[in-house]
Design goal:
about 400 residues; mainly alpha; membrane; Growth Hormone, Chain: A; transmembrane; globular; MFS_trans_sf; Major facilitator superfamily (MFS) profile domain-containing protein
């Protein structure tokens, strides 16, 4: 790997820190918001899940904007919106205001920032996309490691969660903006191609299959990232021990992305994606076993983080296997469409888990719901990942 490729990975890594790391850490902020706004878990969880869901769900528009304006411009705009969203959130007095500032403004900003990195990575590393994505997305693991300590320190220094959120906004802007400046794509091909419309891309059978699969997967994958700290407190852990579960989640996300990415490039992205989905489903279904001890919850958190990190990296690379969208413009639009459907499920999953808790005063039904969604996604991607000669294909790129 040359110096230029290393620089691109570094830039993508920074966008991962500023977006995914922030989203991973909502579980810590969630606990303070529950106290500050005295609302239900479903309603409060919707703040973070809306932001994370829009980060993915806005991908179709982000992909189109990036195809037109480029990764640097869109990534810089994403940095600005992310910073403003967090700073504005620090002044909110009602939960619905947080839906706008934290959920929508931050979510849209993080979408532009993150997918500028995703699309640039797919262009620079067409042969080893999953491995490169695993390296770059390891930046997401910084959040669970750093945010619990940083959040506590910022609250002490600024007098509470509001000041801490504003300070975090300034930091997120700086990190995302620094990453965006290094996301220039490779030189364009000399061959002139007609612009590709989102409708044409969505007509490709391989893209449609991935849209359906990631939509189903979205309902299950983000539940622990939102609820893990509160879940630990419900199991009578101290605040410090409950927040440490996020560290284990981050450790899993940080350490497993690269080996899983390398395995996916070697053995097939769809096969590995299916296997990790099934592993994650089993982990969620076994929560009655994990919750018997702190050590069990630590193992559970590590497994969840490993699967979340690996699956997020793989989700962004599955489209590379669809031959009909090999053109960079088509690739950007297909990535956006697939991530948009991931975002819809990702928005609803943690809210549904919170609603189950509000109804039954236990997270078990929500975790079982997530396990079912992940198992269905694993079956879906395995069944639908057929060789080209067994499927009807639609050509987007001649």
């Amino acid at each position: 790997m040359g110096r230029v490729h290393a620089q691109k990975l570094g830039a993508y890594w920074l966008t991962s820190v500023g977006s995914l790391a922030m989203q991973y850490s909502f579980s810590v902020i969630f606990v303070d918001l529950l106290v500050a706004f005295d609302s239900t878990r479903a309603a409060t969880a919707a703040v973070g899940s809306l932001s994370a869901g829009l980060m993915d769900g806005f991908g179709v528009i982000s992909g189109r904007a990036i195809a037109r304006r480029g990764e640097v411009v869109c990534g810089s705009l994403g940095a600005l919106l992310s910073g403003l969203g967090l700073i504005a959130s620090s002044q909110c007095q009602t939960l619905w205001q947080l839906y706008v500032t934290y959920g929508i403004v931050l979510g849209v900003g993080q979408s532009l920032g993150l997918y500028s990195g995703v699309i640039a990575c797919n262009k620079w590393f067409p042969e080893n996309t999953a491995l490169a994505s695993g390296f770059a997305n390891s930046g997401a693991g910084v959040g669970p490691f750093a945010i619990p300590f940083l959040w506590a320190a910022l609250k002490r220094e600024t007098g509470g969660w509001r000041g801490a959120l504003a300070a975090l906004g300034a930091m997120v802007f700086a990190v995302l903006f620094a990453g965006a400046l290094g996301l220039a794509p490779p030189p364009p091909s000399s061959e002139k191609r007609a612009p590709v419309s989102p409708i044409a891309v969505s007509a490709v059978p391989g893209v449609r299959r991935l849209m359906r699969t990631t939509f189903i997967f979205g309902f299950g994958f983000w539940i622990p990232a939102v609820h893990i700290v509160r879940y630990g407190l419900d199991r009578d852990l101290s605040r410090r021990r409950a927040e440490s579960l996020l560290l284990y989640l981050g450790a899993g996300a940080l350490t497993m992305r690269v080996p899983v990415g390398a395995l996916a490039d070697r053995c097939g992205r769809s096969r590995v994606y299916s296997a990790v989905c099934l592993t994650y489903a089993v982990a969620l279904a076994l929560t009655p076993v994990w919750e018997r001890s702190y050590e069990g919850l630590a193992v559970f958190s590590f497994l969840c983080g490993s699967c979340i990190g690996s699956l997020l990296s793989l989700s962004a690379t599955l489209v590379v296997d669809v031959a009909e969208v090999s053109d960079p413009d088509a690739l950007a639009r297909a990535s956006g469409l697939i991530c948009a459907f991931l975002g819809i499920g990702g928005t609803l999953g943690p809210v549904i888990a919170g609603a189950f808790y509000d109804a039954y005063e236990t997270y078990l039904p929500g975790f079982i719901f997530g396990a079912c969604a992940l198992a269905l996604a694993a079956i879906s991607v395995h069944v639908e990942a057929r060789p080209p000669d067994e499927a009807t294909t639609t050509s987007v790129v001649v």
